[in-house]
Amino acid sequence: xxxxxxxxxxxxxxxxxxxxxxxxxxxxxxxxxxxxxxxxxxxxxxxxxxxxxxxxxxxxxxxxxxxxxxxxxxxxxxxxxxxxxxxxxxxxxxxxxxxxxxxxxxxxxxxxxxxxxxxxxxxxxxxxxxxxxxxxxxxxxxxxxxxxxxxxxxxxxxxxxxxxxxxxxxxxxxxxxxxxxxxxxxxxxxxxxxxxxxxxxxxxxxxxxxxxxxxxxxxxxxxxxxxxxxxxxxxxxxxxxxxxxxxxxxxxxxxxxxxxxxxxxxxxxxxxxxxxxxxxxxxxxxxxxxxxxxxxxxxxxxxxxxxxxxxxxxxxxxxxxxxxxxxxxxxxxxxxxxxxxxxxxxxxxxxxxxxxxxxxxxxxxxxxxxxxxxxxxxxxxxxxxxxxxxxxxxxxxxxxxxxxxxxxxxxxxxxxxxxxxxxxxxxxxxxxxxxxxxxxxxxxxxxxxxxxxxxxxxxxxxxxxxxxxxxxxxxxxxxxxxxxxxxxxxxxxxxxxxxxxxxxxxxxxxxxxxxxxxxxxxxxxxxxxxxxxxxxxxxxxxxxxxxxxxxxxxxxxxxxxxxxxxxxxxxxxxxx
RNA sequence: GACUGAUUAGCUCAGCAGGUAGAGCAUCUGCCUUUUAAGCAGAGGGUCCGGAGUUCGAACCUCCGAUCAGUCACCA
Length: 576
What we know:
Layout: H1 8-22, H2 39-45, E1 57-69, E2 72-79, E3 82-89, H3 90-93, H4 100-109, E4 115-124, E5 130-141, E6 151-153, E7 156-158, H5 164-169, H6 171-177, H7 179-201, E8 205-206, E9 212-213, E10 225-228, E11 233-237, H8 242-250, E12 255-263, E13 275-284, H9 288-307, E14 311-314, E15 317-320, E16 326-329, H10 330-338, H11 347-356, H12 367-378, E17 387-393, E18 409-417, E19 420-427, H13 432-448, H14 458-465, E20 471-477, H15 478-485, H16 511-515, H17 524-529, H18 535-539, H19 543-556, H20 566-575
Parallel strand pairs: 3-5, 8-12, 16-17
Antiparallel strand pairs: 1-2, 1-4, 2-3, 4-5, 6-7, 9-11, 10-11, 12-13, 13-20, 14-15, 17-18, 18-19, 19-20
Helix pairs in contact: 6-7, 7-9, 7-15, 11-12, 13-14, 19-20
The chain binds one RNA strand of 76 nucleotides through helix 1, strand 1, strand 2, strand 3 and strand 6.
């Protein structure tokens, strides 16, 4: 019985699968296949003077193309490191009289996408390409779902697999056929390795803190809410890990960091995924000025590790991460870009200024939020080269320490790059009395309608009441930084499996429901393929039309079923 | 959430003013002992996103819905 839901190609591959089994070949063998070289190593180490140095090779990978010419053939094998061409000759693969392995297994039953292991030796073809002359091969895994075939000539791609929706939903395939996608993720991992190395060399300790939290805090954002059954208690997925890392500082660790998946129940877009990665770092006995130097040094190192240079191409810009970066206070930055000094303004004057600058404000916004809006609208987008913005209004920063000299401000900085914030850092607030007051001010903001105002966390306050050393803290948006370092336009390009809307599932009745109407079992798939997925849908149809449709399908797909009579179909439809 | 656009074969895309679908690659059948987006000859493959409407007739026109993309708004 033909499965009508499969394409012709999928059916053909399932056929091959069966034929292989019939030949006694296990399409999914269990044994290890040991390789001793990669495609890249072959290409790099081949020596025309001494080709015999590359013999007794064993390599494995995926067949990505085949060019068959009678008793000799070429194929391309793709492994983790790249591709190498394979040369198959019938009489080498099958030295004896039995040519099955070449004529049948290789030529007929092997498909693009299959994973094979080969043994052979390296040589250079007449066309000048270093290749592997295969002496034997074995199937390691059969692919029964066809792969998009991307061809390439002179750097020009043909039929590239480009639809973003398909690519994100089907990342495995994306990674197989789009090597540039794979490179982005290699770079991302190189980046986090580089950060870990930088921090570990300074003897900072990598730690883990809870993702499920009874109270969410440490940032201004809306959370995902969940429930623990046994405790019968509401839990939130963390929006930040700040409050837990600070507890570790209280506990006596002097420098801790965590690569944390955080979750925010907010909009999605080019710069936003509901789950994203942040690296937070806390160091005792340090302040935000010290932290600025650390950020510069770390990001400069990342650029050099990834690109061998402090300059990185991002879109139309070249961004230079060479130290030192420019530094402005927030008021200086606003004055520089707008020519207006807002440092002495009260809430009313700020509102009017915002209006003049075309920045939207509403009544839920306090003084700090208005300043932040003005900055975000008129300055941030224009900062391309890495720049530190320092000294934020206290209202916006309930976890940061008040500025040592400037009233109404806190010791906080953000680094802005390519028009976007890449990190956020404070001299941390360690005064428990002030901390409690700040939380209470947040509660007032919440009452004014600010949905993202922070919650009061008694447990956290209790911890810093014990005494937290003066501390500098930092959060870096790992995805955002990865976007810059890999020149990616969208956050979805640096996250393996970005959040996607679920494809709507069609309602389908079980085959038994159709059989109950008197429809023979063999006809049920045909009825469903014809578009009648539920018995209710069938009920709404004109029986004659259904009859014609079904008989047509039988003929078209050569199903060889005995056609029902018009009366049969009428009975099915009316019974439904 | 708003606006604009997209959705046709496994993949990339055509389809001009409404007359029930085309190409290249992939697949299948032949031929070919060093090819390279291999070539040559032949074949099969499509609820034209879903639904309703207008019409003698819809991939194409109208309306509703789904999904995606881009831009904007909120947020890292």
